[in-house]
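Q: Now give one record:
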Amino acid sequence: MKMLRLPRSKVQIGAPLPWSVRDAQGLLLLSRGHVIESEHQLELLLQRGAFVDAEEVRATERDAEPVQPKVSVPPPNLFGLWQQTAEGLKKLLASAKQAPDFAGRVDQFAQHLMELLDSNPDIGIYCCVRQDNAQNFYYGYSHSVQTAMLCILMARRLDWPRGRLMSLVKAALTMNLPILDLQGQMAAQDVPMKDKQRAAIRQHPVQSVALLEKAGVTDADWLAAIAQHHERPDGTGYPLGCSDVCELAIALRVADVFMAKISPRALRSALSPQEAIRELYREDKGGSLSTAIIKEFGIYPPGDFVKLASGELGIVVQRTGNARAPIVAAITDTAGQPVARTVRHDTGQPGFAIVANATDKAMLARLPPERLYGFSSAPPGPSVQDRPPKA
């Protein structure tokens, strides 16, 4: 019996296995037709060592019929829902002065982000990494959303209590309250920061706290994180140059800076995730915050454009237990020519290993992300701002 290592990319979560799974000695682990219910269950199986009979695989491929979709209705377009978040946050923050329960509405928006992220964390990360067609006007709002998303991942990785996590996420959403539109202007300008802009930037932590207190925010951790999120333990930060910086503020600054580095501006290109992670790791001296981000993003995060050992170019679409070996959707053939249908590869297989980052991104300009994940491109449903607040 010739054994092949279980191909991760061929296993569909929630669907019956097309062949039996055995260990390295040929002992039966799972019978054909068994349903693997979760990514966690699959990861444990692969770590144990999972193999399939080569002849059984060939026989299954010969007898296979065209796969019919399990449902006729396509899954919701998560990309559209993520795209709505910047406009949703803009509307929310514009109501800070008159909303009767502004703090509660920010809490609801934070909950909405967590629900989106839980639907598919890989898509959330993809939207942060792939910003080729980002609108500069919304930069301040999209950056706040992306920073909040990273705060969720980071705090969960560090096992922070839910209350502490929520304070951090709400701080990320509101940290730049008085300069959100200014951030959009600066993202679009092709000249360095002006003195007037620099002065506004240096004062925004104090002004943000004042605006939030007027809007009824009383959460001390939320407010302290914003007040100190540009301070540094060595005293070189602003606006006060203090060195006694709270942990939430340090975490917020790390997430804020990392997201800013991987976001493009008119004046500069975005850093690659690998460059941003290296800089973060050096600055944090390999501390818990940088380690948490590396573990959540992986070395090649979803959205990264890479070249495979096969010669194909593709986009990372799914993380795995191996930070260096994600699942990649190929968008070219082995000669580098675009293909109409994407094929997923497990880069843990030597023939499809990632060999480099791809640099020519022209072919990505019109590539709909829905193609990579199988989502409908229909308009998304109502945003969180269109729903009434929870009682």
